[in-house]
Amino acid sequence: MFMKSTMLLGTRKGFIAYNFQNGNWKVENLSFEGIPVSIAYADPRNGNWWACLDHGHWGVKLHYSKDRGKTWVETTAPAFPEGEEVKDGVPATTRYIWAMSQGGNKYPSKLWVGTDPGGLFVSEDGGKDFQLVESLWKHPTRKTGWFGGGRDLPGIHSIVVDPRDENHIYIGISCAGVFETTDAGRNWLIRNKGMRADFLPDPNAETGHDPHLLVAAPTDPDTLWQQNHCGIFYSNDGAKNWQEVSQPEGPARFGFAIAVADDNSNQAWVAPANSDEDRTAVKGALCICRTDDGGKTWKDFRKGLPQENCFDIVYRHALASSGDSLAFGTTTGNLFFSSDRGESWRVLNNYLPMVYSVGFGE
């Protein structure tokens, strides 16, 4: 199946673009060297590249390129209106850009961005200006039912736009759960039924769940997958109900990243880690697990991956699929590629910075 020929990486020390030529991946562009890039994103509608920067001292910055990284333009990063508060007495300031998505072909100038602390922003002019989606920010559960997970404050890390109806959007929030809008963000439904939050006094609470990443199947957007803090969850009814599909004893349980096949809504991959307390490779060995039947069974694939003395894990945005191919980057700077749906792997680089995101583009 056709594979997109560009791979974009956001890393601890820069933006890296690879291009597939004559059977090999070659570095095409290195930008923002030395600066953390939380998300590297290619807009499938126009080919624009986006770099979400986390300068630390200088704060969050946002840049785009129309010429494959030869030149970059800085645009105004999403910012909370003056006076907004994360909670009483704590001003809301954009600390991190954690998700980016195009708004669909029907809205060629629309972009969505998710941030820490828990803000969803929308641009109607191609990213020149972003506005806070106040309906979600002012949701009655936010101040009492949302809290930090891997980061100190709640964050929006997943934005899933339905290609059949681009006003229909799912949002993944750590820690709050899955929220759905069918009217472009004017109203929101909580979609956490069937999920479990073992770390809460009430594991079945309405909010407070921690979906590490949320994805939808391209062939059937009503089929959604999430790698959750408490397992792997699957829905085939548009997130109305979730079912846990973790392995009871095998490695496919805890992790951060998940990807779903372009042509099969029941085929998905995860990158396992030991546990929330021990965030290292399972038994010191790196593997990728795949299901072909909607999570009923899982296979783990190890060919070409290190099987001893390995501490790597894969962050939530650092596993991607395209056609028959997959790629993932690790916390210790290794980049792996598979051309056979994850059954065997080869190394593209062992010497990268920590990898935050991996994505395919044209």
Principal-axis shape: globular
Approximate strand percentage: 35-45%
Task: Report Rg.
Answer: 19 Å
Q: Summarize the main sheet.
A: 4 strands, antiparallel
How far apart, in Å, are the first and last alpha carbons? Answer: 15 Å
- List low-pLDDT spans: none
Strand order of the largest sheet: 3-2-1-30
What is the helix content? under 10%
Number of helical segments with 4 or more residues: 2
Mean pLDDT figure: 97
Number of strands: 30
If you had to describe this structure to a student in words, what would you say it looks like?
With 362 residues, the protein is mainly β. Helices cover 2% and strands 42% of the residues. The protein contains 2 helices and 30 strands. A 4-stranded antiparallel sheet has the order 3-2-1-30, with no helix packed on it. Strand 18 and strand 19 form a beta hairpin. It is globular. The two termini are 15 Å apart. 49% of the residues are buried.
What is the topological layout?
Elements: E1 6-11, E2 14-21, E3 24-31, E4 37-42, E5 49-54, E6 60-65, E7 73-75, E8 85-87, E9 90-91, E10 96-102, E11 111-116, E12 119-123, E13 131-132, H1 134-137, H2 142-145, E14 155-161, E15 169-174, E16 177-181, E17 189-190, E18 211-217, E19 220-228, E20 231-235, E21 243-244, E22 255-260, E23 268-272, E24 288-291, E25 299-301, E26 319-322, E27 325-329, E28 335-338, E29 346-349, E30 355-361
Antiparallel strand pairs: 1-2, 1-30, 2-3, 4-5, 5-6, 6-7, 8-9, 10-11, 11-12, 12-13, 14-15, 15-16, 16-17, 18-19, 19-20, 20-21, 22-23, 23-24, 24-25, 26-27, 27-28, 28-29
